[in-house]
């Protein structure tokens, strides 16, 4: 520890403060000295980026207060272009994907209206826990890559390497699967060649991600508002239809909960066991539907006032998940019977949506095309999210020297363009659908996505637990955090163990007699050996150790947060202010 750090630490101890800065310089200066020889260069100099202090003077970088080694956090070249409304709508858009519009029909057939409602509610609660844990971590350490680098600081550099490359690999398969989905959805209207549709998606997504981050934010804002408008319209339509407001149609009420029943037709086997299997299968479908919600924090370093805006977005997820997801699934369970044969069809377009089935029964002809159009935007938006997640995860790995150094370079617009180009190259996997059935490819790739999403959630839970244990070991009060999530550390336990349970049991159907399939088993469980292989491989190669609780740099991050105060939220008055509070404040 240098003399300046010693004096600052002694002062904070004398004042009864919690900024235990000695733990940071002992651990992280040693790590950075492998990159920068402090005997050759001054502490504020990096041979790749030059004067570190000069880069801390703009609004796009946190100021490192005196007493903390300026090399503790490698300066980032990204720009803070995402505002409160952007981050709120990105969180919402990430939580509403094609799974709600298309996948919910299969869930209703297998688990029934009540089973589907319970299954999505359970995963919805898990998502809320994930977001609150991630908000606490990201408010304390708003860095690019979020959980990728949180694992570096709070757990083990080897875990950072493992989850970082899993977060890179996930979008490599999920983004192409979204382009495959779009190519099948378009067939509802036209026989346009799938290759042309995929090319359009690929170019549009690349252009959105390669320029200013604000462009991405504005595009996602529009996409989210289209989704919300559709969901509100579908909920109103469903209530009107259920209550007998459609001419020539009887009042349904809860009739379909009685006949054919509240818990569906079952799955794999007959009887009550089949109904339980159907209910359990909803968990994996729901995870895929919510995949991408963690994107809110992946670009924390590109968010204006991240310590204020990211927690607000996370807290609002609670209301929006239950209003848009649970209410819409409740309504659709009232108007579509679980034994409708059309629920079993895998058309890949709006024809398999339970909302469309209800519209056809009611004689509303225009609704399927409207749903199809918004589902296309949802699928494209989900792919767009994946590209952002993969590129920023790769950028985070490069910042921690776990990926080639050239991935640290950013464009003059503040975009890690080499990372975007690398991730975009995998989008061409979508052309696999030209040689095989598109729906089969989509289902296989989406299974891979669900398992990698659960791996990310598990690491978020572990990082959150380690943060709380480190605070207890160092005598730091939760009140000193920029944002302290409620019910901690219980939320972190729920995230860790519930996500692990769903991951381990998600492929249960392959073990049922007569259901074994190698590709299904691989897609359900491939992420597990991948994570362990990456973790132990890096650990053996670099001889990394789990960070002792006493050396987790909680006090340092708190000191950085105090040195970078953020202004309070200013709400506008009148209609504009009310509109803003409803959508993104």
TrEMBL record:
The chain crosses the membrane at residues 87-105, 117-141, 153-172, 192-212, 224-241, 317-336, 415-432, 444-469, 490-512, 524-541. Residues 1-11 have a biased composition (Polar residues). The keyword Lipoprotein does not apply. It is found in: Membrane. It holds the Pfam family AA_permease. One of its GO terms (cellular component) is membrane. It comes from the Eukaryota. This is Amino acid permease/ SLC12A domain-containing protein. It comes from Neoarthrinium moseri. The lineage of its organism: Eukaryota, Fungi, Dikarya, Ascomycota, Pezizomycotina.
């Amino acid at each position: 520890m240098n003399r300046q750090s010693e004096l600052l630490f002694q002062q904070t101890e004398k004042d009864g403060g919690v900024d235990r800065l000695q733990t940071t310089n002992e651990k992280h200066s040693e790590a950075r000295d492998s990159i920068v020889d402090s005997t050759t260069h001054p502490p504020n100099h990096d041979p790749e980026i030059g004067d570190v202090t000069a880069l801390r003077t703009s609004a796009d970088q946190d100021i490192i207060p005196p007493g903390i080694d300026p090399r503790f956090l490698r300066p980032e070249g990204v720009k803070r272009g995402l505002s409160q409304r952007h981050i709120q709508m990105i969180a919402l858009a990430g939580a509403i994907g094609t799974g709600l519009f298309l996948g919910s029909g299969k869930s209703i057939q297998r688990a029934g209206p009540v089973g589907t409602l319970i299954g999505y509610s359970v995963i919805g609660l898990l998502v809320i826990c994930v977001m609150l844990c991630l908000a606490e971590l990201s408010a304390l350490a708003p860095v690019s890559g979020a959980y990728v680098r949180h694992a570096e600081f709070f757990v083990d550099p080897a875990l950072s390497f493992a989850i970082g490359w899993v977060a890179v690999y996930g979008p490599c398969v999920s983004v192409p699967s979204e382009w495959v989905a779009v190519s099948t959805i378009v067939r509802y209207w036209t026989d346009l060649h799938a290759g042309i549709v995929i090319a359009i998606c690929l170019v549009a997504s690349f252009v959105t991600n390669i320029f200013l981050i604000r462009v991405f934010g504005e595009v996602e804002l529009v996409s989210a508002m289209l989704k919300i408008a559709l969901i509100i319209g579908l909920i109103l339509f469903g209530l009107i239809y259920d209550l007998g407001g459609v001419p020539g149609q009887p009042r349904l009420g809860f009739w379909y909960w009685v006949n054919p029943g509240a818990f569906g037709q079952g799955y794999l086997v007959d009887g009550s066991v089949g109904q339980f299997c159907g209910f359990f299968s909803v968990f994996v479908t729901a995870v895929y539907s919510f995949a991408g919600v963690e994107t809110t924090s992946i670009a924390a370093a590109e968010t204006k006032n991240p310590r204020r805006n990211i927690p607000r977005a996370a807290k609002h997820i609670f209301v929006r998940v239950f209003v848009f997801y649970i209410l819409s699934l409740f309504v659709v369970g009232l108007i579509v019977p679980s034994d409708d044969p059309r629920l079993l069809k895998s058309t890949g377009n709006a024809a398999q949506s339970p909302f469309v089935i209800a519209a056809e029964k009611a004689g509303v002809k225009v609704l399927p095309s409207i749903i199809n159009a918004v589902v296309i935007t949802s699928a494209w938006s989900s792919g767009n999210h994946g590209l952002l997640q993969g590129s920023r995860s790769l950028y985070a790995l490069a910042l921690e020297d776990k990926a080639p150094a050239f991935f640290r370079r950013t464009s003059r617009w503040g975009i890690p363009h080499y990372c975007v180009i690398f991730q975009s190259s995998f989008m061409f996997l979508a052309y696999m659908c030209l040689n095989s059935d598109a729906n089969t490819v989509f289902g296989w790739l989406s299974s891979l996505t669900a398992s990698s999403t659960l791996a990310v959630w598990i690491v978020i839970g572990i990082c959150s637990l380690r943060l709380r244990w480190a605070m207890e070991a160092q005598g730091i009060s939760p009140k000193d955090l920029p944002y302290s999530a409620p019910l901690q550390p219980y939320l972190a336990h729920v995230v860790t163990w519930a996500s692990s349970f769903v991951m381990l049991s998600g492929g249960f159907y392959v073990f049922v007699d007569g259901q074994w399939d190698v590709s299904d088993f691989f897609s359900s469980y491939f992420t597990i050996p991948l994570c362990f292989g990456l973790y132990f491989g890096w650990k053996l190669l670099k001889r990394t150790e789990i960070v002792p609780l006493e050396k987790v740099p909680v006090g340092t991050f708190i000191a950085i947060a105090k040195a970078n105060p953020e202004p309070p939220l200013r709400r506008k008055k009148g209609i504009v202010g009310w509109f803003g509070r409803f959508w993104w404040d």
